[in-house]
């Protein structure tokens, strides 16, 4: 039996709620589909009311359920922790768990790269202690307290991803996490529907610094037009700051990033010392975030040599730049390369993904076309506000875009890019990904390298699935998750 994460006594102390029985929980769950026996089930109300699933959770072996009322169909002696407000109680569990842990806590935010950087830190810190971090992108008003509530008291490190959609969201979550170190990956055009400008986004991202414990450190991107906003926030709060990037002011300076087929080799200068490390996927943006992650590890007092070595253990999560080989014919050994980046998109991440595709080398002489091609399948970038049409059309001006043979566009917003492309690069334009997916076989050939990129809501993952189904036992490359 694993060590208990929550006892009913601790949960009552944290929330002030009333328990109907004594219980011990080994985990915390908000979803009966992934609940494990021994979990405390949290009956959150979102699209569905979690109270409707309490009976099912208990049948599946939940240790208890956190509720605001006794649900129908639940036995009179069922183990329940009854509170006035379930979400507020989850926040109280998170705060209590943060207070009792010995872990050094890291908070990560940014317009792009939060989840991949969180996973880089898991890889780095995992070689120097036990690490707690969410398995998914749990970075919102319920995701952060849930991650904290799941944190073992004896963890050495915790990495908390903090996101936002609207002003005023980050600071309260950061105060709840009370990090020793925070990192801002970048500030870019994302969620512009809720913000008037990039500067407004920068101020919101900078508010993660408000949650730092006294003496804490902020790791900040040195290469941004809004970097002065970030550094001014650190100075105003009395936090120490370290910069990473290519700017002269960066103490963690990226000297050179060499993109290979399945890796990026990075030469950097970290506070005056030369550092050489490898990231196991191509991408300059990954190299920069890895450099920032090494700065975080330094601020936590980790061994820098181990950190630089262990960053090589990181692989990008599925849908965030993973690269794989789709085997078309095992006898003739023909295949194409798929870059799956279908989880998220804004102008900055779109540019980074296109750079990866442009740097990739197709294979000639193996397909029916003869010449291997770079192909992009691009879905809408969402939540960009009133300038979304111009931002989509601007992709046509991306440096080096001429190296891409064909660009297929998915979604009403991407119609602006399709119209702005030279005729020879114009592929298909469709309203929805569901229209394009059935034609996957006509889009690619052996030897091609295909990038699929778009916001999750554009559902270009349907095209990714269709491309994968073309394979006869697809073989992941070294750069896949």
Automatic annotation (TrEMBL):
Catalysed reaction(s) here are:
D-alanyl-D-alanine + UDP-N-acetyl-alpha-D-muramoyl-L-alanyl-gamma-D-glutamyl-meso-2,6-diaminopimelate + ATP = UDP-N-acetyl-alpha-D-muramoyl-L-alanyl-gamma-D-glutamyl-meso-2,6-diaminopimeloyl-D-alanyl-D-alanine + ADP + phosphate + H(+)
Q: Which organism is it from?
A: Pseudotabrizicola algicola
Is Lipid metabolism given among the entry's keywords? Answer: no
Gene field: murF
Name the record gives this protein? UDP-N-acetylmuramoyl-tripeptide--D-alanyl-D-alanine ligase
Family classification? Belongs to the MurCDEF family. MurF subfamily.
- Protein purpose: Involved in cell wall formation. Catalyzes the final step in the synthesis of UDP-N-acetylmuramoyl-pentapeptide, the precursor of murein.
Location of the Mur ligase central domain: 108-297
InterPro entries in the cross-refs: Mur-like_cat_sf, Mur_ligase_C, Mur_ligase_C_dom_sf, Mur_ligase_cen, Mur_ligase_N, MurCDEF_CellWall_CoF430Synth, MurE/MurF_N, UDP-N-AcMur_synth
Domain Mur ligase N-terminal catalytic as annotated: residue spans: 26-93
Keyword field: ATP-binding, Cell cycle, Cell division, Cell shape, Cell wall biogenesis/degradation, Cytoplasm, Ligase, Nucleotide-binding, Peptidoglycan synthesis
**Annotated compartments:** Cytoplasm
């Amino acid at each position: 039996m694993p060590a208990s994460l929550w006892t009913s006594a601790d949960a009552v102390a944290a929330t002030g709620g009333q328990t109907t029985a004594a219980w011990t929980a080994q985990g915390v769950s908000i979803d009966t589909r992934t609940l494990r026996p021994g979990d405390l089930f949290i009956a959150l109300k979102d699209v569905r009311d979690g109270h409707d699933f309490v009976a099912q959770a208990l049948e599946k072996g939940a240790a208890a359920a956190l509720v605001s009322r006794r649900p129908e169909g639940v036995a009179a002696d069922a183990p329940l922790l009854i509170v006035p407000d379930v979400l507020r109680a989850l926040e109280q569990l998170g705060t209590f768990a943060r207070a009792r842990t010995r872990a050094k806590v890291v908070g990560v935010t940014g317009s792009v790269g939060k989840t991949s950087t969180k996973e880089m830190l898991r890889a780095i810190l995992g070689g120097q202690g036990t690490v707690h971090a969410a398995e998914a992108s749990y970075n919102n008003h319920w995701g952060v307290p849930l991650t904290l509530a799941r944190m073992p008291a004896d963890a050495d490190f915790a990495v908390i991803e903090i996101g936002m959609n609207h002003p005023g969201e980050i600071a309260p979550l950061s105060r709840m996490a009370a990090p020793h170190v925070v990192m801002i990956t970048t500030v870019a055009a994302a969620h512009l529907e809720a913000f008037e400008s990039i500067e407004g986004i920068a101020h919101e991202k900078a508010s993660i610094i408000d949650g730092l414990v006294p003496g804490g450190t902020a790791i900040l991107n040195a290469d941004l037009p809004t970097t002065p906003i970030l550094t001014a926030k650190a100075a105003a709060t009395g936090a120490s700051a370290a910069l990473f990037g290519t700017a002269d002011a960066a103490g963690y300076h990226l000297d050179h990033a060499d993109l290979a087929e399945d890796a990026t080799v990075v030469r950097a200068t970290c506070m005056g010392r030369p550092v050489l490390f490898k990231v196991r996927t191509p991408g300059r943006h990954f190299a920069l975030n890895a450099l920032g992650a090494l700065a975080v590890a330094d601020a936590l007092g980790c061994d820098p040599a181990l950190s630089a070595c262990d960053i090589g253990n990181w692989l990008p999560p599925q849908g965030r730049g993973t690269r794989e080989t789709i085997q078309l014919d095992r006898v003739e050994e023909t295949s194409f390369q798929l870059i799956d980046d279908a989880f998220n998109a804004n102008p900055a991440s779109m540019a980074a993904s296109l750079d990866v595709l442009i740097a990739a080398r197709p294979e000639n002489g193996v397909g029916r076309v003869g010449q291997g091609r770079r192909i992009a399948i691009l879905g809408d970038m969402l939540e960009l506000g009133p300038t979304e049409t111009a931002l989509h059309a601007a992709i046509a001006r991306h440096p080096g875009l001429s190296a891409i043979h064909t660009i297929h566009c998915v979604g009403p917003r991407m119609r602006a890019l399709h119209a702005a492309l030279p005729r020879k690069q114009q592929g298909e334009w469709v309203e929805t990904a569901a229209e394009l997916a059935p034609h996957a076989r006509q889009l690619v050939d052996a030897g091609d390298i295909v990038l699929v990129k778009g916001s999750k809501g554009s559902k270009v993952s349907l095209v990714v699935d269709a491309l994968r189904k073309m394979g006869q036992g697809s073989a992941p490359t070294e750069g896949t998750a």
